[in-house]
Amino acid sequence: MEKDITIKYSNDDVTVVWKPKMCIHSCVCWKELGEVFKPQEKPWVKMDGATSERIMEQVDRCPSGALSYIKKVKG
Ligand code: SF4
Questions:
Q1: Model-level pTM?
Q2: How sure is the predictor about 2, in pLDDT bands with cuts at 50, 70 and 90?
Q3: Are 17 and 8 in contact (CB under 8 A)?
Q4: Going from the N-terminus, what domains does the chain have, and what CATH number goes with each?
């Protein structure tokens, strides 16, 4: 069985978690927020391309669950 790979991309207050095996290539992320999600580049998630709020909003629209995020708790 293939190993589940998880890749994380972070800025100061949010970490985007990507599970490539779950991605169904629906293209929702890069069609709607191309400043952040750039499948032709490596790394393909540019955390400085939009505000954290906008990135989280887009991650919530990923239909496969391949994208998720962890919001950092500020103390
Ligand atoms: S929106 Fe989700 S399923 Fe669609 S390409 Fe992006 S990561 Fe993959």
A1: 0.92
A2: low
A3: yes
A4: 7-71 (3.30.70.20)
